[in-house]
Amino acid sequence: MIFKILHLTSAHSRDDTRIFLKMCLSLARGGYEVIQVVADGKGDYFYEGVQIIDVGSCKGRLDRIRNSPKRVFKRAASLNADLYHLHDPELIPIGLKLKRLGKCVVFDFHEDVPKQLLGKPYLNKAALWCLSKSFAIFESYACKRFDGVIAATPFIRNKFLTINPNTVDINNFPMLGELATDVEWGNKQAEVCYVGGIAKIRGITEVCQAMGMVQTKARLNLCGGFSELGTKQSVKDLPGWQKVNDLGFVDRLGVREVLSRSVAGLVTFHPLPNHVDAQPNKMFEYMSAGIPVIASDFPLWREIIQGNDCGLLVDPLDPAAIAQAIDYLVSNPREAQRMGANGRKAVNERYNWAIEEQKLFAFYDRTFSYTDK
After folding, report:
1. 3-class SS of residue 190
2. Which residues of the chain have pLDDT under 70?
3. Which of 86, 112, 129, 308 has the greatest number of beta carbons closer than 10 A?
4. What is the pairing mode between strands 167-169 and 191-195?
5. Which of 225, 206, 368, 343 is nearest to 284 (CA)?
């Protein structure tokens, strides 16, 4: 029997790394019939065994939250899948609707949403606490009724195990070989990089300030889009911006090329509740590319970076400490190469998608066996 799997997202792009490149393509190669429902206005498409169905683009964030779930639900309900795999918090209500129709539904928590809400800058602390607490109650109610829960980190998994026993962590680890290159270390540039969404809470201000303090000829390859226009303007006014290669959005091949010429990757997020227990994908992608990581000194990240001797830890709020770490790795290529090799070894042995893919298959098999009883 070939199972039909529906992956639903109203917020992520159709080529999202976790949803499409990892999960959907892995499932298609594993013999499942895979459909991904998106809301981007780019039309329907078929790629390597995955059917992409577009329910239309959104007119801003408010329209996405209000109306996209309705369109996603209407299309999803008509497709009669064996399992519905949801990826966005605003889709939780339609997950409950699908359950009332007798569907098998699992929810994939990419982040700890209540903690993420606590870091939002546009509400006061009391309002944020109320919003976070209310969502925590709602997600607990919903996840008791879903057929399973997937968590992007062990920390999130442990939270949901007390709510739904069919919970597993499917970590967002790199695909083996995707970002690795054979560039000789001596051919690298005096460059470090940051890849991913750019925001104040992700440390862009301190990083740009650090670039104004470095003593070497180091430059920063900045790959990604700014989530706040005001933040981009503020960092462009800093002296350190003169040492930034602002590359904007870069596709996966472009990311590979940037990593190949960089001597280190930066992930210096601020110490917010949703960051401290997170496992940023970029951290492991830097490791998979064989370059050392300059990371925030959080307990979990310390366990990964120090435990594998694959980078340097800094206070993310201290630009001078970030600058010192950059200068050290640029000035000590043998040490940087050694740390990078340690990181790649750790990814090859432990932090890779090949392992997580098998966990995903096992989770689906277990979920189908539960629903058949």
Report:
1. coil
2. 60-62, 121-123, 371-373
3. 86
4. unpaired
5. 343
Provide the residue range defining the domain that includes 364. 4-173+352-371
CATH number at residue 50: 3.40.50.2000
Q: Residues 31, 163: one domain?
A: yes
Q: Which residue spans within the chain are E strands per DSSP?
A: 4-8, 33-38, 45-47, 50-54, 83-86, 105-109, 148-151, 167-169, 191-195, 219-223, 244-248, 264-267, 293-296, 311-314
Using the 8-state DSSP alphabet, how is residue 226 labeled?
Answer: B
Residue 15, judged by CB atoms within 10 A of its CB (0-12, 13-18, 19+), counts as middle
- pTM (predicted TM-score): 0.90
Residue 296's CB: how many other CB atoms inside 10 A? 25
Q: Quick one: pLDDT at residue 122?
A: 62
* Exposure class string for 93-104: b at 16+ Cβ within 10 A, else e: ebbeebbeeebb
Phi and psi at residue 303, to the nearest 5°: -60, -40
Residue 121 pLDDT: 65
Q: Convert 102-123 into a string of H (helix), E (strand) and C (coil).
A: CCCEEEEECCCHHHHHHCCCCC
Going across the sheet that includes 219-223, the strands are: 244-248, 219-223, 191-195, 264-267, 293-296, 311-314
The answer on 267 and 284 residing in a single domain is yes
**Assigned domain for 15 exists:** yes
Quick: pLDDT tens for 309-367.
Answer: 999 999 999 999 999 999 999 999 999 999 999 999 999 999 999 999 999 999 999 99
The reply to whether 219 and 326 lie within a common domain is yes
What does the block give as tokens for 118? 């606590």
* Beta-bridge mates of residue 311: 293
Three-point CA angle 51, 95, 74, nearest 5°? 55
Position 290, amino acid: G
| 216 and 258 housed in the same domain | yes
In this predicted structure, what is the pLDDT of residue 3?
94
Please tell me whether residues 68 and 124 are part of one structural domain. yes
**Nearest CA among 202, 186, 195, 95 for reference residue 147:** 95
Within a domain: residue 179?
no
Contacts of 368 (CB under 8 A, 6+ apart): 3, 82, 83, 104
